[in-house]
Amino acid sequence: MFYSFFPIVLIFISLAAIVIVVARKFPQMTGLDTEKLPEVKQAKIKEEIQFQKFLRHLAGVGVKLKSWSRYLGFFKNGWLLTQGRFRMAVHNLQEKYKKSVIAEFRKEVKESAAETKSKKGAAKKKTTIAPVTSLDVDHLKHAEKSREAGDLPLAERLFIEVIKSNPREAEAYRGLGKTYLAMEKLKEAKETFEFLAKLKPDEDRVYNYLGMVAEAQGKKAEAIRYFEEAVRLNDKLAVRFYDLGRIYASAKRPAAALRNFARAAEIEPNNPKYLDQLLEMSIITGDVDLAQEVYDRFRLTNPDNQKLPEFKQRIEEMEE
Hints:
Elements: H1 2-30, H2 38-127, H3 134-149, H4 152-165, H5 170-182, H6 186-199, H7 204-216, H8 220-233, H9 238-250, H10 254-267, H11 272-284, H12 288-301, H13 308-319
């Protein structure tokens, strides 16, 4: 009977031993660090690797976004620039259109005004040009006498009174211009003769006066042009060639001066003034034969001239 209970007792004893061992080891089991287990470590490493990959992926995306942002900025700037140019082009076209419209309008106004002025001018020529009155004639005579007598302020006032009475009286402008020239009011003289040239565009005297004004101003090239125009308009007057030769001589162009003095002496062969200048230029240019010929003519026409001995000596020196 004892043997029948022995196995049961043995089983209980074994269970009690197990319980005692487990009870003693339980604290150690509960304090076990699972983080140090190989499986747990591998899982942690895999998670870390995945997380690092994710971070690198995000970094790559960030770099690409930054690069794309530069391109986007470039396209944005390009778009803004293109838009600005387009707006400027539209603005320029608008301004150009405005200017063309304004220019066309001004042209029409100017043409209309010119047409109106032309009609008024034509009517004025027919109806409003005052004839020269006896009072104007008296003023002109008085003004000329005053100018010749040297009373230039009075002459100026009288000529201006005639012009106020008859604004197209050429003689008044001519006398006023000569008065200003004598008073050395060169600017006023030029303006007066220029207006006279509009009234008398084919009158050689006007351009001769303009040449004198330019000469007095020291504008030799301009004076030559005016004197040449005077000669072109009237090549029958010796004095026109004389004045042109004189300005050429002043401009140190003896050959041109000689040519014009010769033409003046041809028109008036016995004029001592022209022969004097022609002889002078012939000596300067070294034309001995012409100098001797002119000297003989000069001696016959003006035998008492004090310059004859000097001219003779200079010609002899040329022949040596």
